[in-house]
Amino acid sequence: MVSVQNLHFAYGRNTLFAGLDLQLQPGFIYGLLGKNGTGKSTLLRNIAGTLFPDKGSITVGNEIPGKRKPSFLQDVFMVAEEFFLPDITPERLAYSNAPFYHKFNNEQFNRYLSEFEIPVKHTIQRMSYGQKKKTLISFALACNTALLLMDEPTNGLDIISKSQFRKVIAGALGENKCFIIATHQVKDLENLIDRITVIDEGKILFDQTIEQITRKLTFKISFDTAEIHQALYSEPSLKGDAIVTHNTTNDDSRLDLEMLYKAIILNQDKVQSAFN
Predict the structure, then answer these.
(1) Among candidates 179, 177, 172, 176, which has minimal Cα distance to 194?
(2) What is the pTM of this model?
């Protein structure tokens, strides 16, 4: 689906990527995680064809994003972190923009608006920021593009809306679709994504499936001083020390995405050793 090979990209003298490789397949929700300013948005824009590699190549299916062909544009949608929507109703938004997406489904659009509890009789500029974002996400999903890119989609959403977001996204995925969600709010993607890719300073620090992670690592609370000392990562909590450690007993461990992210950022080599 998405192939990034030897990607080099810089803003002037500020090199962001120098030889980045990434392969993404349909049927999965990918979490692209990293601190602000690490290149997540830039990578999404290169994949969407709104930025262009200095060197290397990106292909989406059989298309080169940078060529911006109609056959590519009608099958990719990007929900940017910063966006503008005109002061029209959601119905008018669909009427004006749906013709650009040949697989748009108006019934789905209305269903997503209902699930997000959007006041459909209001014009968009009368809505809150969270409602505007949920309206855009609803339209994006109803376009049924093969590739959906989302940059910090949960920013501005309250707790209930974040739960609605996870439910709607999980239900919208199909075997021929690929969703890439870039965020620094790692907790918001828990129980949603299939694969985690962590970017830091323009490099991929970690790239594993959830299945591989829970098979190799255990996340738990420990009171054992020796176990805590040997853990890949630990931090104190009110109930003991929260740790990430090797899964030596093949236990089923519930993924703690926030703990994993901290472990990768602070102790990358130790964490990666569990997968070598």
Answers:
(1) 179
(2) 0.92
